[in-house]
Amino acid sequence: MVVQDSVDAPGVPLEPFLHQVGGHLSVMRYDEHTVCKPLISREQRFYESLPLAMKRFTPQYKGIITVHLRKDSHGRLSLVANPLTENRGPFTVSTESAAVAIWQTLQQTAGGGALPLAQWQHPQRAHSLKESPAMALLRSELHLKAQVPSLVEDANGNLMEKGSFNPWGLHCHQAHLSRLCAEYSENKRHRFLLLENVVSQYKHPCILDLKMGTRQHGDDASEEKKARHMRKCAQSTSARLGMRICGMQVYQTDKKHFLCKDKYYGRKLSVEGFRQELYQFLHDGTRFRTELLEPIQHQLQALLSVIRSQSSYRFYSSSLLIIYDGQETPQMPHGSNAIKVDVRMIDFAHTTYKGSWNEHTTYDGPDPGYIFGLENLIQILQGIHEGQ
Ligand SMILES: Nc1ncnc2c1ncn2[C@@H]1O[C@H](COP(=O)(O)OP(=O)(O)O)[C@@H](O)[C@H]1O
Ligand SMILES: [Mg+2]
């Protein structure tokens, strides 16, 4: 649907992406096979000079759009994309979807567009976002969990269950919109990156977001930021395993909903806790999905050889997504070798390599932290496999 925006340019409302398991800013759904996220030049440059060997392990890069904030007559906030002419064809975004219905319901329950949603589950998380003390107070008194009605109706009267989407994405979306609203005028154009939605092929996408490596700060980080990141690595499995859980959703076939875990949960895990969580990620509520182990291990091995062949790259703060379908289809019974899994690298906002623009620091050889993480992941999965 094409609508007029506040500055009389045609635009398309973006939908919150209901399968965002990690990250801090809002990832939006652009169309069925495309998501978009706020543009960071470093990430854009990475995608534009992506080595061929890495392409099968990253989302396809689809270009750039500009986006602006819009407030409707009820004070509800949304983001509207202004397509650039060089981008491909007509938009297929619908405003009638369940995602929009959920988002509007949340904004209404929160009492208006500019009101930030609560931190869900743990109100003490409020300090992690830049906000006024008044907002923080408000935030701490509300709980997203309580605000999401157990059933949300979309424009076609279809009911969508609370457990069918990940509250983390809505949390990021609300915080991001509130911040944009506070800091910029509605006419401000924000640039967003268009990326292939790597979970669009899955009916019930089970997603594990692993932040890879033993170091997360980019070379351009301030001393304060560097110290903060180093502390988080030292206190989490990042130091010992070269990875930590940054978010997860796993479909529970018995309860017909997603079990969701966020980055705060992942940061607290011990090595044994990490192993158990990995096991949980492959458990559908009724049984452990043994048949997924081999395809995942196979893809991780293939990724490992690609990473070993990439000299000078350092994927600081990048994530690895492991994806499979939570609901086996009748055509694909377990035990068949046609099981679809995906292993995809995302988030290159702090990736550095020789030849990248304006680098003061460069590195030789492949990324040791990433390789350490991948080798450990393969080994832990092997351990789970042997225990089966
Ligand atoms: N191309 C994509 N396809 C599907 N989901 C994605 C894609 N990119 C990001 N996501 C989802 O959004 C989350 C945050 O993405 P990320 O790029 O790490 O954002 P940030 O820069 O805010 O950390 C991921 O955990 C994942 O669930
Ligand atoms: Mg990220």
UniProtKB/TrEMBL annotation:
Superkingdom: Eukaryota
Alphabetized Gene3D superfamilies for the sequence: Inositol polyphosphate kinase (3.30.470.160)
Enzyme class label: transferase
Entry keyword annotation includes Nucleotide-binding: yes
Keyword terms, alphabetized: ATP-binding, Kinase, Nucleotide-binding, Transferase
UniProt GO cellular component terms: cytoplasm; nucleus
Example of a GO MF term: ATP binding
Protein EC: 2.7.-.-
Gene Ontology BP terms: inositol phosphate biosynthetic process; locomotion; phosphatidylinositol phosphate biosynthetic process
Family: Belongs to the inositol phosphokinase (IPK) family.
Protein name (database record): Kinase
Species in which this protein is naturally found: Moschus moschiferus
Lineage: Eukaryota, Metazoa, Chordata, Craniata, Vertebrata
Gene that this sequence comes from: IP6K3
